[in-house]
Design goal:
The chain is mainly α. It has one domain. Helix content is 80%, strand content 0%. The chain starts with a helix and ends with a helix. The N terminus is likely disordered.
Protein backbone atom coordinates (compact mmCIF):
# COMPACT_ATOMS: atom_id res chain seq x y z
CA UNK A 1 0.00 0.00 0.00
CA UNK A 2 2.83 2.37 0.88
CA UNK A 3 4.64 1.52 -2.34
CA UNK A 4 1.49 2.24 -4.37
CA UNK A 5 0.98 5.55 -2.59
CA UNK A 6 4.58 6.52 -3.13
CA UNK A 7 4.38 5.56 -6.79
CA UNK A 8 1.18 7.59 -7.28
CA UNK A 9 2.69 10.61 -5.60
CA UNK A 10 5.83 10.29 -7.74
CA UNK A 11 3.78 10.11 -10.91
CA UNK A 12 1.73 13.13 -9.86
CA UNK A 13 4.88 15.10 -9.11
CA UNK A 14 6.41 14.11 -12.43
CA UNK A 15 3.25 15.14 -14.27
CA UNK A 16 3.15 18.52 -12.57
CA UNK A 17 6.85 18.97 -13.24
CA UNK A 18 6.25 18.32 -16.92
CA UNK A 19 3.66 21.12 -17.03
CA UNK A 20 5.87 23.68 -15.32
CA UNK A 21 9.18 22.44 -16.69
CA UNK A 22 11.51 24.51 -18.88
CA UNK A 23 9.96 23.14 -22.07
CA UNK A 24 6.52 24.42 -21.03
CA UNK A 25 7.57 27.82 -19.74
CA UNK A 26 8.06 29.44 -23.13
CA UNK A 27 4.64 28.42 -24.57
CA UNK A 28 3.01 29.39 -21.29
CA UNK A 29 4.72 32.80 -21.33
CA UNK A 30 3.67 33.34 -24.96
CA UNK A 31 0.07 32.43 -24.11
CA UNK A 32 0.00 34.83 -21.15
CA UNK A 33 1.51 37.64 -23.23
CA UNK A 34 -0.99 37.01 -26.04
CA UNK A 35 -3.91 37.12 -23.60
CA UNK A 36 -2.67 40.35 -22.05
CA UNK A 37 -2.19 41.88 -25.51
CA UNK A 38 -5.72 41.01 -26.66
CA UNK A 39 -7.33 42.11 -23.40
CA UNK A 40 -5.43 45.41 -23.44
CA UNK A 41 -6.37 46.04 -27.07
CA UNK A 42 -10.09 45.28 -26.72
CA UNK A 43 -11.24 45.81 -23.13
CA UNK A 44 -10.50 49.57 -22.76
CA UNK A 45 -12.58 50.47 -25.84
CA UNK A 46 -15.64 48.89 -24.18
CA UNK A 47 -15.20 49.95 -20.55
CA UNK A 48 -13.28 53.26 -20.64
CA UNK A 49 -14.66 56.69 -21.54
CA UNK A 50 -13.23 58.84 -24.33
CA UNK A 51 -11.50 61.02 -21.74
CA UNK A 52 -9.74 58.05 -20.14
CA UNK A 53 -8.82 56.62 -23.53
CA UNK A 54 -7.38 59.95 -24.59
CA UNK A 55 -5.17 60.01 -21.51
CA UNK A 56 -4.27 56.39 -22.14
CA UNK A 57 -3.22 57.18 -25.72
CA UNK A 58 -1.00 59.98 -24.47
CA UNK A 59 0.47 57.65 -21.88
CA UNK A 60 1.30 54.96 -24.44
CA UNK A 61 3.03 57.44 -26.74
CA UNK A 62 4.98 58.99 -23.88
CA UNK A 63 5.78 55.47 -22.76
CA UNK A 64 7.34 54.73 -26.15
CA UNK A 65 9.46 57.85 -25.75
CA UNK A 66 10.51 56.72 -22.28
CA UNK A 67 11.31 53.25 -23.64
CA UNK A 68 13.70 54.72 -26.19
CA UNK A 69 15.57 56.64 -23.49
CA UNK A 70 15.59 53.67 -21.09
CA UNK A 71 16.83 51.28 -23.79
CA UNK A 72 19.81 53.48 -24.62
CA UNK A 73 20.61 54.07 -20.96
CA UNK A 74 20.25 50.43 -19.90
CA UNK A 75 22.03 48.80 -22.82
CA UNK A 76 24.71 51.34 -23.72
CA UNK A 77 24.96 53.43 -20.54
CA UNK A 78 24.20 56.61 -22.54
CA UNK A 79 21.63 59.18 -21.41
CA UNK A 80 19.96 61.03 -24.29
CA UNK A 81 18.45 64.26 -22.95
CA UNK A 82 17.27 65.42 -26.36
CA UNK A 83 14.80 62.61 -27.06
CA UNK A 84 11.80 64.94 -26.69
CA UNK A 85 13.11 67.08 -29.55
CA UNK A 86 12.99 64.02 -31.83
CA UNK A 87 9.48 63.20 -30.56
CA UNK A 88 8.24 66.71 -31.31
CA UNK A 89 10.48 67.25 -34.32
CA UNK A 90 9.02 64.28 -36.19
CA UNK A 91 5.55 65.76 -35.81
CA UNK A 92 6.75 69.20 -36.93
CA UNK A 93 8.40 67.71 -40.01
CA UNK A 94 5.21 65.87 -40.91
CA UNK A 95 3.17 69.08 -40.61
CA UNK A 96 5.71 71.07 -42.66
CA UNK A 97 5.81 68.37 -45.33
CA UNK A 98 2.02 68.51 -45.56
CA UNK A 99 1.62 72.31 -45.46
CA UNK A 100 4.74 73.57 -47.20
CA UNK A 101 5.98 70.74 -49.43
CA UNK A 102 2.50 69.66 -50.59
CA UNK A 103 3.26 65.98 -50.08
CA UNK A 104 0.62 63.31 -49.72
CA UNK A 105 -0.05 62.12 -46.15
CA UNK A 106 1.89 58.91 -46.69
CA UNK A 107 4.68 60.77 -48.49
CA UNK A 108 4.93 63.29 -45.66
CA UNK A 109 5.03 60.47 -43.13
CA UNK A 110 7.86 58.68 -44.95
CA UNK A 111 9.81 61.91 -45.61
CA UNK A 112 9.68 63.06 -41.98
CA UNK A 113 10.68 59.60 -40.74
CA UNK A 114 13.65 59.40 -43.12
CA UNK A 115 14.80 62.90 -42.15
CA UNK A 116 14.79 61.89 -38.48
CA UNK A 117 16.78 58.73 -39.28
CA UNK A 118 19.37 60.74 -41.24
CA UNK A 119 19.53 63.36 -38.46
CA UNK A 120 20.02 60.68 -35.78
CA UNK A 121 22.67 58.92 -37.85
CA UNK A 122 24.68 62.10 -38.50
CA UNK A 123 24.38 63.37 -34.93
CA UNK A 124 25.12 59.95 -33.48
CA UNK A 125 28.20 59.54 -35.69
CA UNK A 126 29.57 62.72 -34.15
CA UNK A 127 28.76 62.20 -30.49
CA UNK A 128 28.77 58.47 -29.63
CA UNK A 129 32.59 58.48 -29.51
CA UNK A 130 32.49 60.82 -26.51
CA UNK A 131 32.25 59.80 -22.86
CA UNK A 132 28.77 59.40 -21.30
CA UNK A 133 28.77 62.85 -19.64
CA UNK A 134 29.76 64.64 -22.83
CA UNK A 135 27.20 62.59 -24.76
CA UNK A 136 24.46 63.63 -22.36
CA UNK A 137 25.34 67.32 -22.65
CA UNK A 138 25.63 67.18 -26.45
CA UNK A 139 22.19 65.58 -26.82
CA UNK A 140 20.80 68.28 -24.54
CA UNK A 141 22.45 70.97 -26.66
CA UNK A 142 21.08 69.44 -29.87
CA UNK A 143 17.58 69.32 -28.40
CA UNK A 144 17.76 72.93 -27.24
CA UNK A 145 19.03 73.96 -30.67
CA UNK A 146 16.00 72.39 -32.35
CA UNK A 147 13.61 73.86 -29.79
CA UNK A 148 14.94 77.40 -30.18
CA UNK A 149 15.08 77.08 -33.97
CA UNK A 150 11.36 76.31 -34.04
CA UNK A 151 10.64 79.39 -31.92
CA UNK A 152 12.67 81.81 -34.04
CA UNK A 153 10.57 84.73 -35.23
CA UNK A 154 12.09 84.55 -38.71
CA UNK A 155 10.83 80.97 -39.09
CA UNK A 156 7.42 81.56 -37.56
CA UNK A 157 5.62 81.47 -40.92
CA UNK A 158 7.25 78.12 -41.60
CA UNK A 159 7.10 76.45 -38.18
CA UNK A 160 4.21 78.25 -36.48
CA UNK A 161 6.43 79.21 -33.54
CA UNK A 162 5.10 78.45 -30.08
CA UNK A 163 1.58 78.06 -31.50
CA UNK A 164 2.61 75.06 -33.56
CA UNK A 165 1.10 73.89 -36.82
CA UNK A 166 -2.35 72.55 -37.59
CA UNK A 167 -2.37 69.17 -39.32
CA UNK A 168 -5.46 68.27 -41.30
CA UNK A 169 -4.85 65.72 -44.00
CA UNK A 170 -7.12 64.08 -46.54
CA UNK A 171 -6.64 60.52 -47.60
CA UNK A 172 -5.63 57.35 -45.84
CA UNK A 173 -2.65 56.46 -43.67
CA UNK A 174 -2.46 52.85 -42.55
CA UNK A 175 -6.03 52.48 -43.82
CA UNK A 176 -7.32 55.22 -41.51
CA UNK A 177 -8.60 58.73 -42.15
CA UNK A 178 -7.89 61.82 -40.04
CA UNK A 179 -11.18 61.34 -38.16
CA UNK A 180 -10.16 57.79 -37.24
CA UNK A 181 -6.85 58.97 -35.76
CA UNK A 182 -8.70 61.66 -33.80
CA UNK A 183 -11.11 59.11 -32.31
CA UNK A 184 -9.75 57.95 -28.92
CA UNK A 185 -11.32 54.50 -29.22
CA UNK A 186 -10.02 53.84 -32.73
CA UNK A 187 -6.59 55.29 -32.06
CA UNK A 188 -6.19 53.19 -28.91
CA UNK A 189 -5.58 50.04 -30.94
CA UNK A 190 -2.93 51.81 -33.06
CA UNK A 191 -1.11 53.19 -30.01
CA UNK A 192 -1.39 49.86 -28.16
CA UNK A 193 0.06 47.85 -31.06
CA UNK A 194 2.83 50.42 -31.66
CA UNK A 195 3.82 50.39 -27.97
CA UNK A 196 3.93 46.58 -27.88
CA UNK A 197 5.93 46.33 -31.08
CA UNK A 198 8.39 48.97 -29.85
CA UNK A 199 8.80 47.19 -26.53
CA UNK A 200 9.22 43.75 -28.09
CA UNK A 201 11.67 45.06 -30.70
CA UNK A 202 13.88 46.73 -28.10
CA UNK A 203 13.62 43.66 -25.87
CA UNK A 204 14.73 41.45 -28.76
CA UNK A 205 17.67 43.74 -29.50
CA UNK A 206 18.65 43.65 -25.84
CA UNK A 207 18.75 39.82 -25.90
CA UNK A 208 20.65 39.66 -29.19
CA UNK A 209 24.40 39.67 -29.81
CA UNK A 210 24.19 43.44 -30.33
CA UNK A 211 22.70 43.85 -26.86
CA UNK A 212 25.42 41.71 -25.30
CA UNK A 213 28.12 43.80 -27.00
CA UNK A 214 26.46 47.04 -25.89
CA UNK A 215 26.36 45.93 -22.26
CA UNK A 216 29.97 44.77 -22.41
CA UNK A 217 31.03 48.13 -23.87
CA UNK A 218 29.04 49.88 -21.16
CA UNK A 219 30.93 47.97 -18.47
CA UNK A 220 34.43 48.32 -19.94
CA UNK A 221 34.87 49.91 -23.36
CA UNK A 222 38.65 49.73 -23.28
CA UNK A 223 38.69 45.98 -22.64
CA UNK A 224 36.25 45.38 -25.49
CA UNK A 225 38.34 47.48 -27.83
CA UNK A 226 41.52 45.60 -26.90
CA UNK A 227 39.62 42.32 -27.43
CA UNK A 228 39.04 43.27 -31.06
CA UNK A 229 35.40 44.40 -30.84
CA UNK A 230 34.10 47.48 -32.62
CA UNK A 231 32.76 49.72 -29.85
CA UNK A 232 31.64 52.56 -32.13
CA UNK A 233 29.14 51.00 -34.55
CA UNK A 234 27.03 49.15 -31.92
CA UNK A 235 26.49 52.37 -29.95
CA UNK A 236 25.64 54.25 -33.13
CA UNK A 237 23.07 51.60 -34.07
CA UNK A 238 21.57 51.74 -30.56
CA UNK A 239 21.31 55.54 -30.73
CA UNK A 240 19.58 55.42 -34.13
CA UNK A 241 17.18 52.72 -32.92
CA UNK A 242 16.23 54.80 -29.88
CA UNK A 243 15.55 57.80 -32.10
CA UNK A 244 13.46 55.69 -34.48
CA UNK A 245 11.18 54.65 -31.62
CA UNK A 246 10.91 58.27 -30.43
CA UNK A 247 10.13 59.41 -34.00
CA UNK A 248 7.38 56.81 -34.44
CA UNK A 249 5.81 57.94 -31.17
CA UNK A 250 5.99 61.58 -32.29
CA UNK A 251 4.42 60.83 -35.67
CA UNK A 252 1.59 58.91 -34.03
CA UNK A 253 1.08 61.82 -31.67
CA UNK A 254 0.66 64.34 -34.45
CA UNK A 255 -1.68 61.99 -36.32
CA UNK A 256 -3.77 61.66 -33.20
CA UNK A 257 -3.79 65.46 -32.96
CA UNK A 258 -3.78 65.15 -29.21
CA UNK A 259 -0.60 65.39 -27.96
CA UNK A 260 3.82 60.14 -24.83
CA UNK A 261 3.92 51.43 -20.81
CA UNK A 262 2.60 51.91 -17.33
CA UNK A 263 4.83 54.86 -16.29
CA UNK A 264 3.58 56.96 -19.19
CA UNK A 265 -0.04 56.25 -18.30
CA UNK A 266 0.57 57.25 -14.68
CA UNK A 267 2.31 60.43 -15.87
CA UNK A 268 -0.65 61.42 -18.05
CA UNK A 269 -3.23 60.86 -15.32
CA UNK A 270 -1.03 62.64 -12.77
CA UNK A 271 -0.61 65.65 -15.07
CA UNK A 272 -4.37 65.99 -15.28
CA UNK A 273 -4.75 65.86 -11.50
CA UNK A 274 -1.87 68.27 -10.89
CA UNK A 275 -3.28 70.74 -13.42
CA UNK A 276 -6.62 70.73 -11.63
CA UNK A 277 -4.83 71.97 -8.49
CA UNK A 278 -2.86 74.67 -10.31
CA UNK A 279 0.50 73.23 -9.27
CA UNK A 280 1.45 71.29 -12.38
CA UNK A 281 5.18 72.06 -12.50
CA UNK A 282 5.83 71.76 -8.76
CA UNK A 283 3.94 68.51 -8.24
CA UNK A 284 5.26 67.00 -11.47
CA UNK A 285 8.86 67.69 -10.42
CA UNK A 286 8.29 66.14 -6.98
CA UNK A 287 6.55 63.11 -8.50
CA UNK A 288 9.37 62.50 -11.00
CA UNK A 289 12.01 62.60 -8.26
CA UNK A 290 9.98 60.20 -6.09
CA UNK A 291 9.44 57.77 -8.97
CA UNK A 292 13.12 57.79 -9.92
CA UNK A 293 14.11 57.04 -6.31
CA UNK A 294 11.43 54.41 -5.64
CA UNK A 295 11.32 52.85 -9.13
CA UNK A 296 14.80 53.27 -10.67
CA UNK A 297 13.99 50.53 -13.19
CA UNK A 298 10.53 51.85 -14.00
CA UNK A 299 7.15 50.90 -12.53
CA UNK A 300 6.94 47.48 -14.17
CA UNK A 301 10.61 46.75 -13.50
CA UNK A 302 10.22 47.72 -9.86
CA UNK A 303 7.13 45.56 -9.36
CA UNK A 304 8.82 42.64 -11.14
CA UNK A 305 11.91 42.96 -8.92
CA UNK A 306 9.72 43.07 -5.81
CA UNK A 307 7.85 39.94 -6.93
CA UNK A 308 11.11 38.07 -7.59
CA UNK A 309 12.48 39.12 -4.20
CA UNK A 310 9.32 37.95 -2.46
CA UNK A 311 9.46 34.61 -4.28
CA UNK A 312 13.12 34.21 -3.31
CA UNK A 313 12.32 34.91 0.37
CA UNK A 314 9.43 32.44 0.22
CA UNK A 315 11.68 29.69 -1.12
CA UNK A 316 14.25 30.32 1.62
CA UNK A 317 11.56 30.12 4.31
CA UNK A 318 10.22 26.88 2.82
CA UNK A 319 13.67 25.31 2.68
Amino acid sequence: MNNRTTTAESLRTATLGAFVGPSARIPLAIAVVAILFVLGAVAPTYFASDFVLRLGNEGLLLGMLALSVAFLMNQAGLVALGAASVYGGAGFLFAIAMNEWDLTPLGALCASFLIIVVYATVLGALIVRTNPLAFMMLTLAAGEMISHSVLLEGLRDYTGGADGLVVNFKGLILGMEAADFASPARFWLVAWIAAWFAGLALWAVGRSRLGAILRAVRENEERMRFSGFDTYLPRLIAYVLANIVAAIAGLLHVLNAGFAIVGGLIFSFAQDEFGARGLTQLLTGIAIVVFIVVFPRGVVGGLWSAARLRARVGRRETS
